[in-house]
Design brief:
The protein has 295 residues and is an alpha+beta fold. 34% of the residues lie in helices and 25% in strands. The longest helix has 27 residues, at 2-28. Keywords: Endonuclease, Exonuclease, Hydrolase, Membrane, Nuclease, Transmembrane, Transmembrane helix.
Length: 295
């Protein structure tokens, strides 16, 4: 009987430690501005929030219950709203797509982009193997700006209408930015492709992206593969530099060994409404957003 009581005590202690670890994981996921590891931990914010929420169904001390409740509320308050739909309608339609450097379904993808009626297109992972898509789209999108950061990681902006200022490239992978005119208003469209998060050089690329975007004069529309969830500090910094709001609803666009990831986003000054396209030869779904330019 005493042995059983000892085992139960150890189980409770281990359970309490697991809960504290989950709460700490949620808290550290908000520390991305202090260290890039925080952004990596932010990828676990939702599942850790679920763990904390499940613990609330068990008998806990007042202190543990408080920690679990605060962590769960913080996790869900900063993630779930992005998944709620936004009103349809807007001034500009953006099609954003990570092509996949070895995409061999370019004709099908180009047809989908044309059929979408998008005003502008933001492409990532434009490579020597798939850059033929630029020619396939040239008739409908004759104004094209490509920043080729390497043989496989080019980033591009394509537009139906002429660029109204010299196009820009960030100092390192990966932003391509071009200014267009829409309804008499000039705005910038930026295609973004950041590396994977820490320990990869996601933070350095995000710094370069912020440095470029902060220099752009006027409204900025973002579209791209951020390789991070939109609630991470790096993604929020980029949107803040652009003065843009995430278009919704947020949905997974990439599967990593069966785990759905929210990597591809569009943002605009007034937000916008998103629908998602098929893979079409890529490992990322396309993001088609109708966005509003007024805050």
């Amino acid at each position: 009987m005493q042995e059983k009581g000892t085992r139960m005590l150890w189980f409770r202690r281990l359970g309490a430690l697991a809960l504290l670890a989950a709460c700490a994981g949620v808290a550290l996921g908000f520390a991305g501005r202090l260290h890039p590891l925080g952004d990596s931990l932010s990828l676990l914010r939702m599942p850790l929030g679920v763990v904390c929420c499940l613990y609330l169904g068990f008998r806990l001390s007042a202190v543990l219950r408080f920690f679990a409740l605060v962590a769960a509320c913080a996790a869900f308050a900063t993630t779930v709203p992005a998944m709620i739909g936004a009103p349809e309608g807007g001034a500009l339609t953006v099609y954003s797509k990570n092509l996949l450097y070895r995409n061999d379904a370019l004709a099908v993808l180009a047809a989908d982009i044309r059929a979408s009626g998008a005003d502008v297109v933001t492409l990532q992972e434009v490579s020597h193997r798939n850059d033929a898509i630029l020619k396939l789209l040239a008739a409908g999108y004759p104004y094209q700006h490509l920043c080729r950061f390497s043989g496989w990681s080019g980033v591009a902006v394509l537009s139906k209408t002429a660029f109204t200022a010299p196009a820009r490239c960030s100092a390192q992978r990966g932003v391509a930015a071009a200014q267009i005119e829409n309804g008499g208003q000039r705005l910038w469209v930026a295609s973004v492709h950041l590396p994977w998060p820490y320990p990869y050089d996601h933070a350095g690329a995000a710094d370069a992206a912020v440095a470029l975007i902060a220099q752009l004069d006027g409204p900025v529309v973002l579209g791209g593969d951020f390789n991070i969830f939109p609630w991470a500090a790096s993604a929020r910094r980029i949107r803040q530099a652009a003065g843009s709001v995430l278009a919704r609803p947020l949905r997974p666009t990439y599967s990593l060994y069966g785990v759905p990831l929210f990597l591809d986003h569009v943002a605009a000054p007034g937000g916008g409404h998103v629908v998602y396209r098929d893979l079409l030869g890529s490992d990322h779904r396309g993001v088609l957003a109708t966005v509003r330019l007024a805050r």
